[in-house]
Hints:
With about 550 residues, this protein is of the alpha+beta class. Helix content is about 35%, strand content about 25%.
Amino acid sequence: MVWPEVSIEDFPPERDDEPSSLREDILDELTDHFVCALNRELLKNPDEQTAKQRVINQFGDPVKIARQLWLDAMKERMMSQRIMTGISAVMAVCSIAVVGIAWMLMRESQGVNQKMLAQLAVIADRPQAESTVVKSLQRTNEAIVRELKILAESQRPSMEMGFSEMGAMGSSGGEMMAGGFGMDAKSAEPSNINQQILKQLEQLNLKTSQQDGSTSEAMNLISFQLVQDNKDKKPAVGFTGRLTKVGTDAFSLNATSDEKGALEFGKLPWGNYDLSLKSPWGEICHISRFAVIPGRNYSQTIICPAAAPEEVPVQFQVDWSEKQKSDDLLLICDFRKLLQAGGGVTTYEFSSSRNAGSFYWFKDQNQPREQRGVYIISGNHQVTPCPLDAEGNFIDVDYETLKEKPSIKMFEGDFYQLPVIYLITKQDLKKLSQLNSLKEFEVNDKDRAMIYTYRTDQYGGRDLSFVGGLGKNNPATIPCTRLLVPFKKKDAPSDSANIYDVISRHKYIDGTQLPELLKYTALKEQPNVWKIKIPELAKKDIPESVGTGIF
């Protein structure tokens, strides 16, 4: 029997404008996706019923999915028919309404003009605080003045012609026009009112022009001078900047440094601002919360990288004690920072930074088709990039397919940090994808005094220093490197001094905390040897109870 069990009868009734092959195409595509997902699940669990249930839990009811795909494909055609029907009805209503609207506009013009005069009188007496608002209002008023002058000139001859034609029509025709459209001697009032409006607007323009000069004194010129990080301090050209005002009146402006390295944003209100700079090759620098004081222009010189960072060779050196050395053990070093986790989506960042003057510039090393930041280190110090999927998730790997090298290329940087190291065996690489769902690890603290729960999906995320009432002493939030054993080996020797065997056999812990956070540099014209010391751990160093709470 074909799985999933979806047929033509499960679709809505067939429509005349439906493509003949639509339903078959949907069934073929849906079946293909479900079969592929089933095959993947069977690799994890040979039980077919369990695998099918997991696929359905992941994607949903196949019948509902098929009906939804059909509806999505036909939505445009169905909506087109409804829109045409609606347009026809609207056109009919509009045709009826046009005649009535024209008559109502003639009746209401006098009342609208009187309300405009009242509004203009209020606006003329209202103080304007912002120069940008004053200028905008002034431009609007000038445009209205021009339009009303044209309207006033055009209304006078048209009114005279209208009354002459009424006289020629005779008394009966005149009475009909007066009765039908309400035109009497007072119809000349809109022309007089328009003249009053013109006078009011001209006075308002004069007043806002005077206020513009006074409010401009509260504006401040904000500019930056960008120079290269070299002896000559040449101008840094082509750097883009985004200036953002912080607060309830927030706004953002973009600018690009010119041939003199000037990055100017013009006159802006005083307050707190943030600045983000981006180099032509993609490095980013953030300057947060600088204050612009009323009545004082703001200017700052910013040191920028002179050129794009180059890639330099990096070697790993693992310090194993003689008791811990094993050809079967591997280290997976994860340098990435978790930006977001939840809703089925996990986002990682792998960036390096370098200092130019007193400013830090960050380079994002991940590319859309190349996820970086995770490396496999063998016992003889050989290194290879860990294979990842397009979203940065772990995938299963065969150790024999890895192409190990003595070094690997890294972009120049003054600051690389290594938060998590996974200790596994070569055989564990074949189930490496399970790491994507393993988030909680019981970790022994560096003082060997307690065990706490560490979550890998909270690293780099929200501040957890308040959890458990430990504040800054919370071991889960102290910046340090953690050595984790995700796949335990239950048959490890009980008398072994190897840290992997000790953690594998222990029922309480899944890893241990290193004394500090491992940090490295990758610089030109120097050997970049990144050292990792594996701590020794005996059974006596592990508390016989676990801590409380998830840190």
